[in-house]
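Encode chain A's predicted structure.
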Amino acid sequence: MRAKTAEDRRLLELLQPVAEAQGLQIVRLRLMGGTQRRRLQIMAERPADHEIDVEQCAQLSRAVSEVLDAADPIAGEYLLEVSSPGVDRPLTRLADFDLYEGLEARLETDRLVEGRKRFRGVLAGTEGENVAIDLEGEADTALIPFAWLAEAKLVLTDELLKRGARRVQSNTDTPKEED
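Encoded structure for chain A:
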């Protein structure tokens, strides 16, 4: 899910080492648009705290641009966009479902699961290679194979906003070392 298409996967393979060299991990990469002006969207973060600042986005953008200019893997014009995953972030790795357990999410599968493809509920972690989610109105926790997910994203709720505010507050409470 970090890369959706074969072209996205090739770009991810090319660009992930660039991100890793800067201490970052690409959360999601998508090349969007038709044949005219396309947009390459890269969401990245530090693996340790799942954050990224504006300067790191700018540095990654410059480094990625250099690699893309040299390798020229995208035909035609495109716009490069490097950003954080945001508070209502996409969930692209199995570990994300444990990390954000207890928060509301929307999941979409690439095939029917009990007659449907879209699910919304509270994440209940993982069981093996399955995502566990407590769906509204259902007594049992649903298990959805991670490999079947086409999209997954946190839902912007008061609880998610409070969690984000607590994280920002804890980051600002920590004294920074002076150079």
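The chain has a mean pLDDT of 92.
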